[in-house]
Amino acid sequence: MRVRFWGTRGSIAKPGLGTVRYGGNTSCVEVRTRAGTLLVLDCGTGAHGLGHALEAGRTAPLRGHILITHTHWDHIQGLPFFAPLFVEGNEWDVYAPRGLRESVRETLAGQMQYAYFPVSLDQFAATVRFHDLVEGAFAIADVRVTARYLNHPALTLGYRLEADGVALVYATDHEPHSRALASGDASALAGEDRRHVEFLAGADLLIHDAQYTAAEYAEKAGWGHSSVESVVASARTAGARRLVLFHHDPLRDDVRLDQVVAAARRQGGPALEVTAAAEGQTVDVVPTSLVPGPEHPASVAAETSPPREMLTRSVLVALDPGALREQLLEAVHADDLTAVSPADAADVLALARATPPSVLLLGRRLGGLDGLEVCRALRAEAEGAAAALPIVIVAADESETDRAAGARAGVTDWLVAPFSTLYARTRIRAWALRQACRWMRAPLPPDEPARLRALHDTGVLDSSPEERFDRITRLARRVFDVPIALVSLVDAERQWFKSRQGIEIQETPRELSFCAHAIHDDRVFIVPDALTDPRFADNPAVTGEIRARFYAGRPIRMFGRRVGTLCLVDRRPRELREDDVRALNDLATLVEEELASGGIGPTPP
Ligand SMILES: [Zn+2]
Ligand SMILES: [Zn+2]
Prior knowledge:
Strand content: 15-25%
Bound molecules: zinc ion
């Protein structure tokens, strides 16, 4: 059984930079059995993309089945935009719970009345049959369907689909009946909550409403949605193998959803695999008996779900005890990877041979040994999985790196301190998944020591804000129509903002800094679309709260060195015209003149 998510969001479509990864479209899930039966679970705005994909790949008239859970907008709004319904020769069956007064057909026709939509239900060119459902079981081709009422303000059905030797349960828009369960306590299940868990029993894939956290739920009781905690507790009690959190709150951006998933995994423990539904993600659900041995304890092979892959991966952290080692362990744990930290070099070799990890993080110095020697020893005898093992040398500073010797020894990559935990985490994740890391730290400029001296000699770092600089950034924001304009100074480990418009933070780690890239050249440094630029796409300044999509920075020179930039950040991709570049040059020159004139304001205590 193959499952593909076309819409994952609850309540209202929420496209935008904050929801790029998990998706902004409302509920729509495509299910196909091996025999080719096509089922569509809900027809939220995600159905628009599905419909076009189906029509584009069509070689014969389409035959499909749409199972609607209930007729709230976020579950039916894509129906009038579902292209296969407008193609003659196609045949569709639409199933939904029967309302108290109206039939399914009448209810669905309601949103297509002329006041709301110009095309009526009668104008579907395909053959469309409507089926009014109540609780019970029936068959669609090779799929056994069980429909069960959920707890929601509208009459709502959950669907359990059994085919190909697996069970998929789609239960969205459901609220636990008891307060205890809502807070994640499933120890005393009774009545309807118990019946619900029975409905989920043994699901190979459980797609479940998880709109709120338990803390948020306190304010949202009665709105008809589940807390993540209640869903994890129910899934565990039901013996479900994999839980996919669904119906994401429109207020939850990708970064916060990552945090929700991490918390749910901690609660779920090793027996339950937890991910959050992501638009575009495909999941193959296979029976337990087809799951290969203990190396792959998870029951489901996901095609495009890195988080699942990571659960089975471990990282060997072979560094002498100290702050660097602690930081790396923290980074590994943050992604729920397993960290193994051997005591000495002999253990490293033995462990790497016996059970090759996904990544080996190896100190440049390890208990008096040279990390490169350890690397060479491993490579000399490596075969199979160990031969492909990424070996990353962790250097305490740039002086410890020797990239030529590293290449000869078989080093995959270098991680050079200082780095932020976030940066280490992103890189480790990429190595573990054998993926390109789309976040690159800027190399140090060749004149770094002299550059830092020039910066420190200005005395500007950590000084108070000054109107003469703020005037320029205000102007920049206005002239270029950008939300953020900064005078940014690139210090050894941070960029610090002498003047800032549009953001609250005073400084960020240097690795996040676009300006650290900009100071390599005198010209204006432009990133038209950070999301498509491998140097920046995974940078937290892009994926996180700042949501930087466009960047333009003009280096600022002091004592002949490029100490920082006057820079512009936008949340849309865009270009900079030639006259814009000239204007940015002019404004940056003003900043240089102000800096050169001295009289930097007092440094606050
Ligand atoms: Zn909904
Ligand atoms: Zn609803």
